[in-house]
Specification:
Blueprint: H1 4-11, E1 21-26, E2 31-35, H2 50-57, E3 60-66, E4 73-81, E5 86-93, H3 94-144, H4 155-172, H5 186-192
Antiparallel strand pairs: 1-2, 1-5, 3-4, 4-5
């Protein structure tokens, strides 16, 4: 035999919330000890409680029910104690479980929303920077291939284009033609600009 005060001392520091409890009972439904301790429950016989119906199916498990003693909706985890006709059940109010979960879910949801907004902002900034870089590179390529005075393609552009066209003509085995025109009086034209 074990004194019930032993269980009271053993379980007094367990925190299960205001509607949680730990119950030690005989497999016939007689409550032997309960924490938080309430003397009116000691010796109470509850053979029709869902715990004992579940115990008939499995030696350990969990289920959700309304408590037989106070009607509070609870999540119950139970296990039969090996070698003894005893079962221990730990129950916690679903309201308490979901209250903590709700706060946690709100915090996680808020952080995810904030992260999404920051990511979207950074993506927009990166897109604008890539466009600005592309525009600058295009402008620089145009400036590098254009004569600043006349606005016409320069010799560098000519060399690049003729090389590219030569390689294409060799690859496709097609003829290549080049037409060159000399502009008379270019100096006087340049002086007007």
């Amino acid at each position: 035999s074990v004194e019930l005060s032993y269980f009271e001392q053993l379980l007094k520091n367990v925190k299960l919330g205001p509607d949680g409890s730990i119950t030690l009972s005989h497999i016939d439904g007689t409550v032997l000890m309960r924490w938080p301790f309430k003397e009116k429950y000691i010796g109470l016989n509850l053979p029709r409680a869902k715990l004992y119906k579940e115990l008939a199916v499995s030696r350990a498990g969990r289920f959700e029910t309304e408590a037989a003693t106070d009607g509070v909706k609870q999540l119950v985890v139970y296990s039969r104690i090996a070698g003894f006709p005893l079962v221990i059940a730990i129950s916690q109010s679903t309201k308490d479980i979901y209250a903590n979960w709700g706060k946690f879910a709100f915090a996680v949801g808020f952080m995810l929303a904030l992260l999404c907004m920051v990511t979207e902002g950074l993506a927009m900034y990166l897109t604008s920077e890539l466009k600005r870089r592309h525009d600058a590179e295009t402008k620089l390529a145009t400036l590098a291939a254009t004569d600043g005075l006349t606005g016409l393609s320069n010799s560098r552009h000519f060399s690049t284009t003729i090389r590219s066209e030569w390689q294409r003509a060799m690859r496709e085995m097609t003829p290549l033609a080049l037409l060159m025109r000399d502009a008379d009086n270019l100096k006087s034209y340049n002086d007007l600009l």
